[in-house]
Design a protein that fits this description.
This protein is an all-alpha fold. It is built from 13 helices and no strands. The two termini are 38 Å apart.
């Protein structure tokens, strides 16, 4: 027998193919992440599009006009939210307009002087806070630089993701069917299509879980701010709920905005910090794991472990995509187990038939 034989060559080529695919995926990981977010964004907008299409008097068979209406409504909601936060309250507008110079004010300790003056701090307490900020100036500037870089990336993604989302909303089924026909043969087409449907249902459950967390954050933050008398509590609650879609950085941005508005409007910002901290602990370690555990059929401990591993491996994107990826793996593993059990049953039945025929 010659070496290498045909089977060995086939195995080696398969290994090289998988290695090449993994290498390309690693190099193009940023693009893949954007496409993943675009798919999830399409799943978020799809229920609205289907609702508009189902209750429309015209164009019931066309998705394009209803996609345009959904996007138009989303743009109006964002504009109204920004307008409310930016100009609805003098303190809020002052805070948002002062965001570009916030880094320098924090690094020089000027923000400590302003907070101390607004809250009646003594000179010693204000001086200690200002000295602390000046001593950690390098850390503050590095943190603000990282936040600025992250904000630039997010703004770029905000432009690209909705555009790709339109393509997935309009031709998602055709694209999925084309991929299935490309990777599956004629004999496996129905099995691959069934698997794709299971993944589709799982992603719908994931988005439903995210929307549930958004609604809970909106209600909690709005009620807390109304009780503490913060101006435009409803708009700030909506902002906190929407930013719940962004892991880690989302609640940090929301908390910084809310606390900044509270400080500049002379509200009870210390109580706000306490209530936001309590809510964050409840959300991360009790509410979110149970919501996703129910929607994705994952144990809460497994959900927490998956989020932590995803955040350590892939940062913010890894934390966001870890749960749907884990759920997809669970669906694939379950389907492979079913196919293996079916194959064993078929082989057992075939052996039984052959033995009876021989006898």
């Amino acid at each position: 027998m010659s070496f290498p034989d045909r089977r060995t060559v086939s195995v080696l080529l398969t290994i090289l193919l998988f290695a090449a695919v993994l290498a390309v995926a690693y190099v193009a990981r940023a693009v893949l992440v954007i496409f993943c977010f675009s798919i999830l964004f399409a799943y978020l907008i799809d229920p609205i599009v289907r609702f508009l299409q189902r209750h429309s008097l015209f164009f019931k068979t066309l998705r394009g006009p209803h996609i345009a209406k959904a996007y138009f409504a989303l743009i109006i909601a964002v504009v109204l939210l920004v307008h409310t936060l930016g100009s609805g309250s003098p303190g809020t507008g002052k805070f948002l307009r002062g965001l570009p110079t916030l880094s320098e004010r924090v690094a020089t300790g000027e923000i400590a002087t302003e907070i101390g003056r607004n809250n009646g701090w003594g000179d010693d307490k204000t001086l200690r806070a200002k000295t602390f900020l000046v001593q950690h100036r390098a850390n503050v500037q590095n943190a603000m630089g990282a936040i600025t870089q992250f904000a630039t990336t997010v703004l770029s993604a905000i432009v690209v993701i909705p555009i790709l989302g339109i393509l997935f909303l309009s031709d998602g089924k055709r694209l999925a069917d084309g991929v299935i026909r490309l990777v599956a043969g004629k004999n496996n087409y129905e099995s691959a299509q069934s698997l794709a449907e299971d993944v589709n249902v799982m992603l719908q459950h994931y988005i439903r879980g995210k929307v549930t967390l958004v609604a809970l954050s909106w209600v909690y933050v709005s009620l807390a701010l109304v009780i503490l008398g913060v101006p435009h509590a409803l708009a700030l609650g909506i902002l906190a709920g929407c930013l719940e879609f962004i892991p880690i950085a989302g609640w940090m941005i929301a908390a910084a905005t809310i606390v900044g508005v509270a400080v500049l409007t002379h509200s009870h910002w210390i109580w706000i910090v306490v209530l936001l901290g309590i809510w964050r602990i409840l959300m991360d370690y009790w509410i979110a794991p149970r919501v996703f555990g129910r929607e994705l059929e994952l144990h809460p401990v497994v959900a927490i472990f998956t989020l932590m591993v995803g955040a350590s491996v892939g940062g913010l994107a890894g934390a966001y995509l870890s749960l749907p990826i884990a759920a997809v793996i669970r669906v694939l593993w379950s389907r492979l187990g079913q196919l293996s059990a079916q194959q064993i049953d078929n082989e057992g039945t075939l052996s039984f038939v052959r033995s009876r025929a021989t006898n």
